[in-house]
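Figure 2 data, in text form.
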Amino acid sequence: MSTRRRDFLKVSAAAALSGATVPYFASTQKAFANQAASDRPLVGCIGVGGMGSGDARGHAGFGDIVAVCDVDKGRAENAKNNDKIGKGKADAYTDYRKVLDRKDIDVVSVVTPDHWHVKIAIEALEAGKHVFCQKPLTLTLEENQLIRNACKKHSDKVFFIGTQQRSDRRKFLRAINMVQKGLLGDIKKITVGINGGPKGGPFKVSEPPKNLDWDFWLGQAPMVDYIKERCHYQFRWWYEYSGGKFTDWGAHHVDIATWAIGEDKEGMGPIEFDGSDAKHPVPYENGYATIKDCYNTAHDYAVKCKYASGIVMTVTSRGDNGITFEGTKGRIFVSRGKIVGLPIEEKWDDGQYGDAEAAALYKGKQHEGHKNNFYRCIREGGLPVSDVYSHVQTMNTCHLAAIAARLGRSIKWNPKTEKIEGDELAATFFAREQRKGYEILRV
């Protein structure tokens, strides 16, 4: 290890522990990319499919990718030989543990199917790595607690979630500032439009491709015959591996809504979830699909999430994709494409939204690109804009909305004890059985 890189790691670890700000580099992504090779962290990318390869190209602007990994050997080889990722020099693996075993790797990027995120992330922290993990971070309510505990234990490591809307200054951060400044008055109602999941099936069982380790891909999930539509991108439409749109888009939009109204701290969140207005593409019994060869996540729903404050947030498949905040003084709608409403047209936030406000939302750091913030926090310390603790609060809401929808009724949640109350069946969805050999580490 070079002296400069060794010093970088010492500085980043000390800064993370102290919360100190250590000026170390310029603020632009171009400046990061122009660091000397001896001063760049070494990165291992676990999961290099569509999203994973995109994230890997982003990481290459800040560090040197020395390892790529995917249970689909073809994807690992493609990433290795991609001139913007492995450049033909990175080692390619099909077992993520070989990446974590390497002492030279400083940062790991985890962009696997959702049901693998927490297991790999905890083991990465235990191996002494900084972690970038794509959303949604967790599969269950229990996993929220497990990853939070691991991050508290390893507070010297930066853990970053790929919720890039948290870095959108022109739209989402502006909306949050407007809500938090009280410019819309008291918020009474929020509508979170996340679209509906697809219908599909029945699908055919077939032999797994030779380049794919199907048993390893399934991990903690139950062993089932290979169906192409269970794998790669389509995994998110099966509750066995994900939460459908509740966690796919919910991890983004519910996150922004939760942050805006200040319900993003431990012990906070809705107290009741009404899933009576929800439909699934297959029949359900006691919260489980009775057909095994079709997509099974909800496709049509409007789940009402009620807060103790009186705010009602409806997570729905209907209407536009985006978030509507309705207050006693005005309302706005924000999405990735636009931010609109009379308060925007009349610039109610004129003079009340600038660099200082953006920095405050960025936890005291200057606003910049999403991954810039991750690598800045590694060097300077402090929580990143997409931190695990607020994300866990978002995922509690997303998972509970999905549970209520699966059961088709209201369930009550105690956000302080983090338990479902008064419903024995609903409470069983807090965790899922993990297949032997793929259990998640408790730390």
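Caption note: Residues 199 and 378 are 42 Å apart (CA to CA).
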